[in-house]
Write a structure and sequence with these properties.
The chain is mostly helical and about 375 residues long. The chain folds into 3 domains: about 10-155, Serine Threonine Protein Phosphatase 5, Tetratricopeptide repeat; about 180-255, no CATH class; about 270-370, Serine Threonine Protein Phosphatase 5, Tetratricopeptide repeat, CATH 1.25.40. It is about 70% helix and about 0% strand. It has helices at about 10-15, 25-30, 45-55, 60-75, 80-90, 95-105, 110-125, 130-140, 150, 165-175, 180-195, 195-210, 220-230, 235-250, 260-265, 270-290, 295-310, 315-325, 330-340, 345-360, 365-370. Helix 19 runs antiparallel to helix 20. The longest helix has 20 residues, at about 270-290.
Protein backbone atom coordinates (compact mmCIF):
# COMPACT_ATOMS: atom_id res chain seq x y z
CA UNK A 1 0.00 0.00 0.00
CA UNK A 2 1.36 3.50 -0.76
CA UNK A 3 2.66 5.34 2.27
CA UNK A 4 1.85 8.97 2.93
CA UNK A 5 4.87 11.27 2.58
CA UNK A 6 6.41 12.13 5.92
CA UNK A 7 6.54 15.79 4.96
CA UNK A 8 2.75 16.06 4.69
CA UNK A 9 1.54 17.83 7.83
CA UNK A 10 -1.68 17.13 9.68
CA UNK A 11 -3.66 20.04 8.30
CA UNK A 12 -2.76 19.24 4.71
CA UNK A 13 -4.24 15.80 5.20
CA UNK A 14 -7.27 17.30 6.87
CA UNK A 15 -7.53 19.64 3.87
CA UNK A 16 -9.64 17.44 1.75
CA UNK A 17 -9.24 13.84 2.37
CA UNK A 18 -12.60 13.73 0.66
CA UNK A 19 -11.25 13.71 -2.88
CA UNK A 20 -9.38 10.80 -4.46
CA UNK A 21 -5.96 10.73 -5.97
CA UNK A 22 -6.76 8.01 -8.51
CA UNK A 23 -8.00 9.07 -11.94
CA UNK A 24 -10.95 6.68 -11.90
CA UNK A 25 -12.14 7.92 -8.53
CA UNK A 26 -11.87 11.50 -9.79
CA UNK A 27 -14.07 10.60 -12.74
CA UNK A 28 -16.59 8.99 -10.39
CA UNK A 29 -16.94 12.28 -8.56
CA UNK A 30 -18.21 13.97 -11.71
CA UNK A 31 -21.51 12.13 -11.30
CA UNK A 32 -22.85 13.14 -7.91
CA UNK A 33 -26.35 13.27 -6.56
CA UNK A 34 -28.10 16.49 -5.63
CA UNK A 35 -26.29 18.04 -2.70
CA UNK A 36 -28.24 18.80 0.46
CA UNK A 37 -28.30 22.14 2.21
CA UNK A 38 -25.13 22.92 4.16
CA UNK A 39 -24.93 21.63 7.71
CA UNK A 40 -23.70 23.78 10.57
CA UNK A 41 -20.83 22.03 12.33
CA UNK A 42 -19.08 22.97 15.54
CA UNK A 43 -15.43 22.06 15.19
CA UNK A 44 -12.77 22.44 17.88
CA UNK A 45 -10.11 24.05 15.70
CA UNK A 46 -8.08 25.15 18.72
CA UNK A 47 -7.41 21.52 19.67
CA UNK A 48 -6.63 20.67 16.05
CA UNK A 49 -4.13 23.53 16.01
CA UNK A 50 -2.52 22.28 19.21
CA UNK A 51 -2.26 18.74 17.84
CA UNK A 52 -0.94 20.02 14.53
CA UNK A 53 1.84 21.97 16.19
CA UNK A 54 2.82 19.00 18.34
CA UNK A 55 2.81 16.66 15.36
CA UNK A 56 4.91 19.01 13.24
CA UNK A 57 7.39 19.33 16.12
CA UNK A 58 7.75 15.54 16.05
CA UNK A 59 5.71 14.83 19.17
CA UNK A 60 3.26 12.39 17.58
CA UNK A 61 2.30 10.86 20.93
CA UNK A 62 1.56 14.32 22.28
CA UNK A 63 -0.60 15.09 19.26
CA UNK A 64 -2.58 11.90 19.72
CA UNK A 65 -3.02 12.56 23.44
CA UNK A 66 -4.24 16.11 22.76
CA UNK A 67 -6.84 14.84 20.31
CA UNK A 68 -8.01 12.11 22.69
CA UNK A 69 -8.44 14.68 25.46
CA UNK A 70 -10.29 17.05 23.14
CA UNK A 71 -12.58 14.25 21.95
CA UNK A 72 -13.44 13.39 25.56
CA UNK A 73 -14.43 17.02 26.12
CA UNK A 74 -16.28 17.32 22.80
CA UNK A 75 -17.63 13.81 22.08
CA UNK A 76 -19.92 15.16 19.33
CA UNK A 77 -16.99 16.53 17.28
CA UNK A 78 -16.33 13.94 14.56
CA UNK A 79 -13.56 16.08 13.07
CA UNK A 80 -11.43 15.51 16.17
CA UNK A 81 -11.86 11.75 15.79
CA UNK A 82 -10.91 11.95 12.11
CA UNK A 83 -7.90 14.12 12.98
CA UNK A 84 -6.74 11.37 15.35
CA UNK A 85 -6.99 8.96 12.44
CA UNK A 86 -4.92 11.27 10.26
CA UNK A 87 -2.10 11.28 12.81
CA UNK A 88 -2.24 7.48 12.98
CA UNK A 89 -2.11 7.38 9.19
CA UNK A 90 1.00 9.56 9.25
CA UNK A 91 2.51 7.10 11.71
CA UNK A 92 1.71 4.23 9.33
CA UNK A 93 -1.09 2.71 11.41
CA UNK A 94 -3.61 2.27 8.58
CA UNK A 95 -5.88 -0.07 10.54
CA UNK A 96 -6.05 2.36 13.44
CA UNK A 97 -6.82 5.20 11.07
CA UNK A 98 -9.59 3.19 9.44
CA UNK A 99 -11.14 2.52 12.85
CA UNK A 100 -11.06 6.23 13.67
CA UNK A 101 -12.63 7.23 10.36
CA UNK A 102 -15.43 4.71 10.84
CA UNK A 103 -15.98 5.95 14.39
CA UNK A 104 -16.13 9.54 13.13
CA UNK A 105 -19.03 8.55 10.87
CA UNK A 106 -20.77 6.97 13.87
CA UNK A 107 -20.18 10.07 16.00
CA UNK A 108 -21.72 12.41 13.45
CA UNK A 109 -22.92 11.13 10.09
CA UNK A 110 -23.44 14.73 8.93
CA UNK A 111 -19.77 15.58 9.32
CA UNK A 112 -17.80 14.86 6.12
CA UNK A 113 -14.55 14.07 7.97
CA UNK A 114 -15.12 10.36 8.59
CA UNK A 115 -16.34 9.70 5.04
CA UNK A 116 -13.39 11.74 3.78
CA UNK A 117 -10.91 9.53 5.59
CA UNK A 118 -12.59 6.34 4.34
CA UNK A 119 -12.59 7.82 0.84
CA UNK A 120 -8.85 8.42 1.05
CA UNK A 121 -8.16 4.90 2.28
CA UNK A 122 -10.35 3.41 -0.44
CA UNK A 123 -8.34 5.29 -3.06
CA UNK A 124 -5.08 4.07 -1.54
CA UNK A 125 -6.49 0.52 -1.46
CA UNK A 126 -7.60 0.76 -5.08
CA UNK A 127 -11.20 -0.09 -4.16
CA UNK A 128 -13.02 1.95 -6.78
CA UNK A 129 -16.55 1.01 -5.70
CA UNK A 130 -15.91 1.95 -2.09
CA UNK A 131 -14.10 5.10 -3.20
CA UNK A 132 -17.09 6.16 -5.27
CA UNK A 133 -19.51 5.69 -2.37
CA UNK A 134 -17.42 7.28 0.38
CA UNK A 135 -16.03 10.12 -1.74
CA UNK A 136 -19.46 11.06 -3.06
CA UNK A 137 -20.94 10.93 0.43
CA UNK A 138 -18.16 13.13 1.77
CA UNK A 139 -18.57 15.58 -1.08
CA UNK A 140 -22.30 15.86 -0.49
CA UNK A 141 -21.81 16.75 3.16
CA UNK A 142 -21.54 20.40 4.07
CA UNK A 143 -20.25 21.46 0.67
CA UNK A 144 -20.56 25.20 1.16
CA UNK A 145 -19.46 25.42 4.78
CA UNK A 146 -16.07 27.19 4.91
CA UNK A 147 -14.77 24.53 7.32
CA UNK A 148 -15.19 21.97 4.56
CA UNK A 149 -11.96 23.17 3.04
CA UNK A 150 -10.34 20.84 5.58
CA UNK A 151 -11.75 17.84 3.77
CA UNK A 152 -12.40 19.07 0.24
CA UNK A 153 -9.06 19.53 -1.48
CA UNK A 154 -6.00 17.39 -0.93
CA UNK A 155 -2.65 18.63 -2.07
CA UNK A 156 -2.13 15.27 -3.68
CA UNK A 157 -4.71 16.33 -6.26
CA UNK A 158 -2.45 19.20 -7.26
CA UNK A 159 0.12 16.79 -8.61
CA UNK A 160 0.33 16.23 -12.35
CA UNK A 161 -3.02 15.21 -13.80
CA UNK A 162 -5.15 16.02 -10.77
CA UNK A 163 -5.28 19.82 -10.90
CA UNK A 164 -8.51 19.94 -12.90
CA UNK A 165 -10.24 17.79 -10.30
CA UNK A 166 -9.02 20.11 -7.55
CA UNK A 167 -10.32 23.10 -9.50
CA UNK A 168 -13.72 21.45 -9.90
CA UNK A 169 -13.87 20.77 -6.18
CA UNK A 170 -12.90 24.33 -5.27
CA UNK A 171 -15.23 26.16 -7.62
CA UNK A 172 -18.47 25.79 -5.62
CA UNK A 173 -16.65 26.31 -2.33
CA UNK A 174 -15.02 29.57 -3.40
CA UNK A 175 -18.22 30.78 -5.07
CA UNK A 176 -20.20 30.18 -1.88
CA UNK A 177 -17.49 31.56 0.43
CA UNK A 178 -15.49 34.19 -1.49
CA UNK A 179 -14.01 35.80 1.63
CA UNK A 180 -12.58 32.71 3.33
CA UNK A 181 -8.76 33.00 3.21
CA UNK A 182 -8.17 29.25 3.52
CA UNK A 183 -10.19 28.63 0.37
CA UNK A 184 -8.57 31.48 -1.51
CA UNK A 185 -5.11 30.20 -0.61
CA UNK A 186 -5.72 26.79 -2.15
CA UNK A 187 -7.56 28.39 -5.07
CA UNK A 188 -4.52 30.56 -5.79
CA UNK A 189 -2.26 27.52 -6.03
CA UNK A 190 -4.71 25.68 -8.28
CA UNK A 191 -5.11 28.66 -10.61
CA UNK A 192 -1.35 29.14 -10.81
CA UNK A 193 -0.85 25.51 -11.78
CA UNK A 194 -3.62 25.71 -14.36
CA UNK A 195 -2.09 28.96 -15.70
CA UNK A 196 -5.33 30.83 -15.10
CA UNK A 197 -3.51 34.00 -14.22
CA UNK A 198 -6.54 36.31 -14.24
CA UNK A 199 -8.31 34.17 -11.64
CA UNK A 200 -5.06 33.80 -9.71
CA UNK A 201 -4.69 37.58 -9.56
CA UNK A 202 -8.16 37.89 -8.01
CA UNK A 203 -7.22 35.29 -5.41
CA UNK A 204 -3.93 37.05 -4.70
CA UNK A 205 -5.45 40.50 -4.31
CA UNK A 206 -8.06 39.19 -1.88
CA UNK A 207 -5.44 37.27 0.10
CA UNK A 208 -3.23 40.35 0.40
CA UNK A 209 -6.19 42.15 1.95
CA UNK A 210 -7.28 39.24 4.15
CA UNK A 211 -3.86 38.60 5.64
CA UNK A 212 -2.88 42.24 6.14
CA UNK A 213 -2.37 42.96 9.86
CA UNK A 214 -4.88 45.80 9.64
CA UNK A 215 -7.58 43.38 8.55
CA UNK A 216 -7.44 41.51 11.85
CA UNK A 217 -6.42 37.95 12.65
CA UNK A 218 -8.10 35.40 10.38
CA UNK A 219 -10.00 32.48 11.84
CA UNK A 220 -7.97 29.57 13.14
CA UNK A 221 -8.60 27.45 10.05
CA UNK A 222 -7.28 30.28 7.88
CA UNK A 223 -4.18 30.79 10.00
CA UNK A 224 -3.48 27.07 9.87
CA UNK A 225 -4.01 26.93 6.13
CA UNK A 226 -1.63 29.86 5.64
CA UNK A 227 0.97 28.22 7.86
CA UNK A 228 0.71 24.90 6.08
CA UNK A 229 0.68 26.26 2.55
CA UNK A 230 3.79 28.29 3.32
CA UNK A 231 5.37 25.34 5.14
CA UNK A 232 4.86 23.22 2.05
CA UNK A 233 7.08 25.61 0.10
CA UNK A 234 9.68 25.99 2.84
CA UNK A 235 9.01 29.68 3.36
CA UNK A 236 6.55 32.01 5.04
CA UNK A 237 3.22 33.27 3.78
CA UNK A 238 4.56 36.64 2.61
CA UNK A 239 7.20 34.90 0.53
CA UNK A 240 4.64 32.53 -0.96
CA UNK A 241 2.35 35.39 -1.94
CA UNK A 242 5.26 37.40 -3.36
CA UNK A 243 6.37 34.40 -5.40
CA UNK A 244 2.82 34.02 -6.67
CA UNK A 245 2.89 37.69 -7.68
CA UNK A 246 5.95 37.03 -9.84
CA UNK A 247 4.34 33.99 -11.45
CA UNK A 248 1.23 35.97 -12.31
CA UNK A 249 3.21 38.88 -13.76
CA UNK A 250 5.28 36.48 -15.87
CA UNK A 251 2.16 34.62 -16.99
CA UNK A 252 0.52 37.86 -18.05
CA UNK A 253 3.65 39.04 -19.86
CA UNK A 254 4.14 41.95 -17.45
CA UNK A 255 7.50 42.94 -15.94
CA UNK A 256 7.61 42.29 -12.20
CA UNK A 257 8.09 45.21 -9.87
CA UNK A 258 11.40 45.69 -8.12
CA UNK A 259 9.54 45.68 -4.79
CA UNK A 260 8.08 42.21 -5.45
CA UNK A 261 11.42 40.89 -6.64
CA UNK A 262 13.14 42.27 -3.56
CA UNK A 263 10.64 40.53 -1.29
CA UNK A 264 11.19 37.20 -3.03
CA UNK A 265 14.97 37.64 -3.15
CA UNK A 266 15.01 38.42 0.59
CA UNK A 267 13.31 35.14 1.48
CA UNK A 268 15.10 33.12 -1.20
CA UNK A 269 18.64 34.51 -0.92
CA UNK A 270 20.23 31.43 -2.46
CA UNK A 271 18.04 31.51 -5.56
CA UNK A 272 20.42 32.83 -8.21
CA UNK A 273 17.68 33.09 -10.82
CA UNK A 274 15.62 35.47 -8.67
CA UNK A 275 18.70 37.56 -7.88
CA UNK A 276 19.59 37.82 -11.57
CA UNK A 277 15.99 38.75 -12.37
CA UNK A 278 16.17 41.52 -9.78
CA UNK A 279 19.44 42.77 -11.27
CA UNK A 280 17.92 42.87 -14.74
CA UNK A 281 14.80 44.67 -13.51
CA UNK A 282 16.89 47.29 -11.70
CA UNK A 283 18.87 47.77 -14.91
CA UNK A 284 15.69 48.03 -17.01
CA UNK A 285 14.14 50.53 -14.60
CA UNK A 286 17.40 52.46 -14.58
CA UNK A 287 17.47 52.68 -18.35
CA UNK A 288 13.82 53.79 -18.39
CA UNK A 289 14.54 56.50 -15.81
CA UNK A 290 17.57 57.66 -17.76
CA UNK A 291 15.51 57.87 -20.97
CA UNK A 292 12.97 59.97 -19.08
CA UNK A 293 15.70 62.35 -17.94
CA UNK A 294 15.59 61.24 -14.30
CA UNK A 295 19.29 60.63 -13.80
CA UNK A 296 19.13 60.47 -10.01
CA UNK A 297 16.61 57.59 -10.06
CA UNK A 298 18.63 55.85 -12.77
CA UNK A 299 21.76 56.08 -10.62
CA UNK A 300 19.96 54.53 -7.66
CA UNK A 301 18.75 51.60 -9.78
CA UNK A 302 22.19 50.91 -11.24
CA UNK A 303 23.79 51.11 -7.79
CA UNK A 304 21.20 48.66 -6.44
CA UNK A 305 21.93 46.28 -9.30
CA UNK A 306 25.69 46.53 -8.69
CA UNK A 307 25.16 45.74 -5.01
CA UNK A 308 23.83 42.38 -6.19
CA UNK A 309 26.23 41.89 -9.10
CA UNK A 310 29.46 43.64 -8.29
CA UNK A 311 31.85 44.93 -10.98
CA UNK A 312 29.52 44.01 -13.83
CA UNK A 313 30.78 45.88 -16.95
CA UNK A 314 27.35 46.67 -18.37
CA UNK A 315 26.01 48.00 -15.09
CA UNK A 316 29.15 50.05 -14.47
CA UNK A 317 28.90 51.56 -17.94
CA UNK A 318 25.23 52.44 -17.45
CA UNK A 319 25.94 53.92 -14.03
CA UNK A 320 28.74 56.08 -15.43
CA UNK A 321 26.53 57.53 -18.16
CA UNK A 322 23.59 58.21 -15.82
CA UNK A 323 25.83 59.80 -13.19
CA UNK A 324 27.61 62.00 -15.76
CA UNK A 325 24.28 63.12 -17.23
CA UNK A 326 23.10 64.02 -13.74
CA UNK A 327 26.31 65.94 -12.98
CA UNK A 328 27.25 63.40 -10.31
CA UNK A 329 30.87 63.42 -11.44
CA UNK A 330 32.26 61.65 -8.38
CA UNK A 331 30.01 58.65 -8.97
CA UNK A 332 30.80 58.65 -12.71
CA UNK A 333 34.54 58.74 -11.99
CA UNK A 334 34.29 55.88 -9.48
CA UNK A 335 32.21 53.76 -11.85
CA UNK A 336 34.63 54.27 -14.75
CA UNK A 337 37.69 53.65 -12.60
CA UNK A 338 36.19 50.31 -11.48
CA UNK A 339 35.19 49.52 -15.06
CA UNK A 340 38.80 50.03 -16.22
CA UNK A 341 39.98 47.66 -13.52
CA UNK A 342 37.62 45.04 -14.97
CA UNK A 343 38.15 45.85 -18.67
CA UNK A 344 41.42 47.81 -18.93
CA UNK A 345 41.45 47.70 -22.75
CA UNK A 346 37.98 49.16 -23.21
CA UNK A 347 38.72 52.15 -25.47
CA UNK A 348 35.36 53.81 -24.95
CA UNK A 349 35.64 53.52 -21.18
CA UNK A 350 39.15 55.02 -21.27
CA UNK A 351 37.97 57.98 -23.35
CA UNK A 352 34.98 58.54 -21.06
CA UNK A 353 37.23 58.37 -18.04
CA UNK A 354 39.37 61.11 -19.53
CA UNK A 355 36.28 63.25 -20.14
CA UNK A 356 35.12 62.85 -16.55
CA UNK A 357 38.57 63.63 -15.18
CA UNK A 358 38.67 66.77 -17.31
CA UNK A 359 35.23 67.79 -16.00
CA UNK A 360 36.56 67.31 -12.48
CA UNK A 361 39.44 69.69 -13.29
CA UNK A 362 42.07 66.97 -13.20
CA UNK A 363 43.55 67.85 -16.57
CA UNK A 364 46.96 66.25 -16.06
CA UNK A 365 45.31 62.90 -15.27
CA UNK A 366 42.84 63.25 -18.11
CA UNK A 367 45.33 64.10 -20.87
CA UNK A 368 46.74 60.57 -21.52
CA UNK A 369 43.25 59.09 -21.83
CA UNK A 370 42.07 61.81 -24.20
CA UNK A 371 45.22 61.80 -26.31
CA UNK A 372 45.07 58.06 -26.95
CA UNK A 373 41.48 58.51 -28.07
CA UNK A 374 42.58 60.87 -30.85
CA UNK A 375 42.59 59.33 -34.37
Amino acid sequence: MPRLPRSTPLLLLLIALAFPLAAQAQNDLAETEKRPDPIELTIDFASIQQATELEVAGDVDGALAALVAASAEHPEDATLVAAHGVVLLRRGDVDGARTDFQRAVEVNADDPSGYAGLCYLAVLDGKEGTAHTTCTTARNRNLVDPAYVQVSVTFGMLEEGAVAAAAEALQPLVAANPYVPALRLVSLEVNLRMKRFGEARVDLEMLQQMYRPASGVPRIIDRLAAFRMADLYGTDLDCYLSSATLQIAEGEGQPPSVADLERVAACRPDDGAVTEQLVQQHNADGMAARAAGDSATAVEHFKAALALKERDPVLLTNLSYAAFEGQDLATAEEALRTLLEVTPDDAEARRNYGIVLMALGREAEARPYLEEAQP
